[in-house]
Amino acid sequence: MSERTRRNGELESLEKDLREWEGAEVAAFVQRQPERKDDFTTIGGFPLKRVYTALDVADTPLEEVGLPGRYPFTRGPYPTMYRGRHWTMRQIAGFGIAEDTNQRFRYLIEQGQTGISTDFDMPTLMGYDSDHPMSEGEVGREGVAVDTLADMEALYDGIDLEKISVSMTINPSAWIMLAMYIAMAKKRGFDLNKLSGTIQADILKEYMAQKEWIYPIEPSVRICRDCITYCAENMKRYNPINISGYHINEAGSSSLQEVAFTMASTITYLDEVTKTGLDIDAFAPRLSFFFVCGSDFFEEIAKFRAVRRVYAKIIKERYGAKDPASMRLRFHCQTAAATLTKPQYKINIVRTGLQALSAVLGGAQSLHTNGMDEAFAIPTEEAMQIALRTQQIIAEETRVADVIDPLGGSYYVESLTNEYEKKIFEILDEVDEKGGTIKLINEGWFQRHISDFAYETALRKQSGEDPVIGVNMYVDPDDDPDIEIHPYDPETATKQLARLNRVRAERDDAKLQSLIERFKAEAKDDSVNLIPVTIEMVEAGASMGDIVEAGREVWGTYQESPVF
Amino acid sequence: MADSKKTPIRVMMAKIGLDGHDRGVKVVARALRDAGMDVIYTGLHRTPEEVALAAVQEDVDVLGISLLSGAHMTIFPKVLRVLKEQDAKGIILLGGGVMPDEDVTELKAMGVQGVLLQDTPPNAIIETIETLVAERGAR
Question: How many CB pairs under 8 A join A and B?
Answer without folding.
Answer: 100
